[in-house]
Amino acid sequence: MPTLLETASKLDKMLDVGWADRTPISTDNITFDQVAGQSYLETKFIPYTSENVTINSASQKRERTEGVLFVRIRTPMDQGIGLAYEYAAVITNVMNNKNPLPNLFTYVTKVRRSGDGKDGWFSLICDVPFISDET
Predict the structure, then answer these.
(1) How far is CA 121 from the centre of its chain?
(2) CA distances (Å), 64 to each of 13, 30, 80, 117, in order?
């Protein structure tokens, strides 16, 4: 059974391997040197609810956590929306409906617009929902 740390690490690794160095990735709570005008991803691991669940019998209790891996795609303004949506397609292909560890599952990624571009970036957010059972 994965722990929350293992869940976060596995989701980050799945994205990192599938992303294959297309752009730099800024990971939550790690120093990131952004290069002006260079597209990048920003990720945050967000567990948002936990509950006790019983599987088959009372002796098989687990803590079930649901949350999202938040991925913000940042592409420079005035270059159209195509690149950002291409990146979103890569993320959904890499992360949708996966079972990378026992009792860790991802669901369909939700893509949405973010911001108004006044910060110099066209931004999309990809929320990768997950469920993880810890013993």
Answers:
(1) 19
(2) 21, 27, 41, 37
pLDDT one-digit tens code per residue, 56-103: 666 666 788 899 999 999 999 988 899 999 999 999 999 999 998 888
Looking at domain 4-31+43-134, its CATH superfamily turns out to be Phage tail protein-like (3.30.2000.10)
pLDDT in tens, 33-54: 888 889 999 999 999 876 776 6
Q: What is the pTM of this model?
A: 0.88
Give the CA-trace dihedral at 91, 96, 98, 103, to 10 degrees. 110
**Domain coordinates of the chain in residue numbers?**
4-31+43-134
Beta bridge partners of 71: 43, 126
Amino acid at 30: I
Hey, which residues does 111 pair with through a beta bridge?
A: 126
Q: What is the dihedral of CA 49, 55, 61, 62, to 10 degrees?
A: -30
